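hey all, quick one before standup. I had two proteins in the batch that finished overnight and I want to keep them in one place so we stop losing track of which output belongs to which input. First protein below, input sequence then structure tokens straight from the run.
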Amino acid sequence: MIGRVGALRLSLRSKIVGPFVLIVALVGIIGTAAVTAQVTSEAVAEFNGSLLHASLLANDHLSLVEVARLTTLRAAAATTGVPEATTAQDTAALQRLLVPVVANASVPSLLLHVLDRQGMEVTVLGPDGPAAGLPSSSEYVSEPAVAAVLAGRSDAQGDKYVFLRTEASGTTVYWAGPIRGLTGQVVGVALVGEPLSAIAGGIRSSSSDHISFYGPDGEVLQSSLSSTGPLPAATRGMVQPDRPVRFSQSSGGQPYMNLVSDWTMRKMPLGYMAVALNTAQLLAGLDQLRLFLFILFAAAALITLVIGLMLAGAITRPVQRLVGAMRAVAAGDLAHRAPPGPSDEIGYLGQVFNLMTAGLQEKTQALEATYFAAIEALARAIDARDPYTYGHSARVAAISLQIADELGYPLAKREGLRRSALLHDIGKIGIADHILRKAGALNYVEEEQMRQHPIIGHQMLKDVPFLHSSLSGIRHHHERWDGTGYPDTLAGETIPVQVRILSVADVFDALTSDRPYRNAMSVAEATELITHESGRQFDPAVVKAFRARAAGIVAILQQQRAKETTRGNFPAPLAGEGRVGADVVLKKAS
């Protein structure tokens, strides 16, 4: 029953704290996950927007570059005197006419090539004038765009073309247009070229974006990232004119997200262009966000659980005290009461429990008193079987309490000692009258039968709960300090204190009372004899306490024997005539 009560108490705390834990789990975990997902989605969306914006700016820059280069190309082809100088292959005249055109373009890396009607190179100019160390004049005649210009072909975009040329120094973007004579025939080709690295640098000049250019087959033409691999075929296959594709890569130990789109000029597909943004800041921000939400969740969980535990404690603490009181009462302590509780149902329950326990204690005490009175009456009846032992148990009880007071015997154990003294000879109910009243010495068989009375008394009362504290005195009051007593031959400290006190009181009353086989000793003689047996039959400390209370003990005996005399019983005087040997007296007294 007590185990079930303990389980109920724990279950009550769990039922109170459990919902707080569940709320923390649901709100914390699910809420944190939802907030993290929402904020992450917004952060990623913002990052993707920045990436798309950078890609649009890059494409706009390419369009502006194309317009500027085509403008330079038209200016070169339309400059007066250029067709005639090209036809005459007059390098000096071409240089003089075209240097201002190149200078006006304000592009440090810009190149201007002039080819004649056969595609042979006539001159090459840079921003600082004629370029030196350039390829031979037949380098460009095999380019399809150059051949188309020389053939005078035009398409939907006009008669100007664009192409890529990769050399040892890198990839260059060229725009090709015809140089026409006065009659409109093609007399040469003008090529305006700009290195792809310069174009990429122009795109990056206004931002921290990274630009990569790939050829039609995914090969890397130009990249501002330190480690860029070819563009996979699967990625190239997903790129559409209106649908760029994202892919991630790592460069220099940093994570990047790329947005790759098709790269076209003059509506001709040249390859692919990718704009890359560093995602380290994004990832770091998301990590900080997760850490912040985790700390926030942990703090909220801690506060919630603390509040829950405080609330659970406030509710269950009175219940625990009440359960403790119930356990004490269930263990037999009917004097225990539940402490005052709060002014609520639990406090009212404690009050009802205390009233119920008080009533139970009162009824139990009354029942025990009635039961004990019956047993005590039986013990007195046993004493009354022999006029010489009438009142012996009551006197032993009074003497025992005097000795106990001197020893500082616990008050809580005094009632057990008193009952033990009153009932110590109850086992004599099983001893025949001719043995109890025999005037002479007992023979061996009679003595063995007499020695059974402590065991008989113990067996009679061992199942009476409220007498459990008195059983040791009933069973062992004939044990001796030196271990030669009976029935269990206990010795020294193994003999309970209750028994040591009772043994001295029992022998003293027997010595100072008349018996059929001898007269009563005087108090002095009995005291001397008991003192002589200190350390042998009796505990020296108990003997010392007995001697200290001798005057009070004599007064109690005189008072009780006076009462017995007035009732018509046979009184047992404190001072008898004559005595027998000490060993015989002690043996018969015990």
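OK second protein, same deal, sequence then tokens:
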Amino acid sequence: MSWEAWFTLGVVALMVAALARDLVAPVLAVLGADVLLLVTGVIDTEAALSGFANPAPVTVAALYVVARAVEKTGALEPLLLRTLGHRDHGRFALARLLAPVAGASAFLNNTPIVAMLAPQVADWAEKRGRSASAFLMPLSFATILGGTITVIGTSTNLVVSGLLEGAGLAPIGMFEITKIGLPVTILGLFALVLFAPVALPERRTARGRFTDDFREFVFHATVAPGGPLEGRTIEGAGLRQLQGVFLVGITRHGEAIAAPAPSTVLYGGDRLTFAGRVDLVRDLQSMRGLVADGEEHAFDLKRPGNTFFEAVVSGASGLVGKTLKEVEFRSRYHAAVLAIHRAGQRVHAKLGSVPLKEGDTLLLLADEGFARRWRDRNDFLLVSHLGGNPRPTSRQAIIVGLVTLAVVVLAGMGVVSILHAALLGVFALLATGVLTLGEARSAVDLDVIVVIAAAFGIGAAIERSGLAALIGDGIVRGFSGWGPIGVLLAVTLATIALTEVITNNAAAVLIFPIALAAAGELAVDPRPFAMAVAVAASASFLTPIGYQTNTMVYGPGGYRFGDYARLGAPLTAIVVATILLVVPLAWPFSGG
């Protein structure tokens, strides 16, 4: 084993550890590993930058823009929510939701699908006396399954297609992967409808707890005209550093001021809204210059001036590991956090001193523009109104639908490549005014694109250093008694295990050269192994952190960490079994 192979193994191990333990952002871990392998001479410049010249990252970026147009215009919301109907029919209602969701995810990025539908599905469920936990995790899993149906269904499929092309093999056709993706999706949806009502316990969701608990810690008071507080700023009046209580809003002449700044001047007649511990809130009643409001417990999520949001902290956010006080949350976001929910429970500590974690759900008060400002940023995976009505569908939704259909048809029929079809779609959306240039730029998650591109260099290092051949030979020796099927099983399980602790794209890139090396040792066609890697890398059902949509519904669904394995374990077993049964038939090891 050469020093290059040992060094590559060490770099990859450090990268995986950093990703698994969230020591640094994924883009820093993967790009840093790529740069380290370059400067030490394990790979040359061409190999290190090969991903940036590959069609896969650009195609993923273009499809992000198309998905953003769908989200902006609300093109899918009426169609998919209409399938739920007006009544709760148990498993039938679940099936009516999941089937079209999976179908939509075959052609669109699944993250905006979940972002669009999760709040509306939660409202639908709770209005019918059901916990949203019965629907949100299946919603996420259905989008993951649907993404395996076509090559554009998920970025992982495009990454594997790009890796095949880089290895001198034919890329994955638009519907080539359907031969395995469709059976996986059909069986997976059947399992979700069958097992979800049994495996998922009824959980109180974050928004449900918030609506119930708000009456326990809200207090309204009015600034007395001519009193000692009139004309003073919030900070000067001593209302900024209250222990266990904070000022969340002011209503002045019918207009709401959400999350007012410390420098805001108080006027007589201002109606102040405080939140905090009940005993401390009541102490405010004795403060000179404040008159207790007779409607102490009045609260309405839909009342004008009360604009409440649910926001899920992203793993790529600068909020992770820091407290609200450290990031000066109110000043930075112009919003006041009323509650933090983590792993299905409300955090009862002083909010300003709680270090935030990925997947934390923040219930906050802000102005109407909060969602518009932060929905496309990396700070939050999900931003949704509480108690609001669905957005009206834009008239431009028809244009978006036609553009998306054209992308699929042109690429599916081979008229143009997938990359060219996606770029034409982006140009059409910009030319018709559906999206502005700024909206298109903000739609692209550059961190994801850089991770994909940089990961190609790491894959090249694994192959060129001889590490892939060594590991591939070890896999073949260990599973040679079962023949190619045994090796296919080993590759599939390794991919699934890796995708639960690091990003799915990184998992696919790391396993791909090993899978090809194993195929070479067996002297069989590498294509079935590549297809198995593509599907297995997306099969992240066991934890809330393995896949972005799982994290998005973690807090809003009120789930505990172990809830994912309850439903995800049988689903994972079905995916593995289907791969072993279908892949050798669809892509024979002999290459026929």
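Flagging for whoever picks this up: The beta strands are 218-223, 245-252, 255-258, 271-276, 290-292, 308-313, 335-342, 345-346, 361-366, 380-385. The radius of gyration is 26 Å.
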